[in-house]
Design a protein that fits this description.
Layout (H helix, E strand, L loop, with lengths): L25 E3 L6 E5 L9 H12 L3
Antiparallel strand pairs: 1-2
Protein name: OB-fold protein
């Protein structure tokens, strides 16, 4: 099979993660309010490592 004959993927490439801004000061988690590993100027939703992991578990099983 010629590589040029391959059909494109049905799933789009994952979005690039927002740029991580170093801290301190560190942003508070939007779920639980604990400090995160992200600086306060980091764009987008910032979660602490525990909430990030739990969110990944929820979205991984959402089908």
């Amino acid at each position: 099979m010629d590589p040029s004959d391959e059909t494109p993927s049905y799933c789009p490439a994952p979005a690039a993660p927002a740029g991580r801004v170093p801290g301190p000061p560190y942003a508070d988690c939007l779920e639980c309010g604990k400090p995160t590993e992200y600086g306060v100027a980091t764009p987008g939703v910032v979660l602490c490592p525990v909430c990030e992991w739990q969110d990944a578990q929820r979205t991984a099983c959402s089908g």
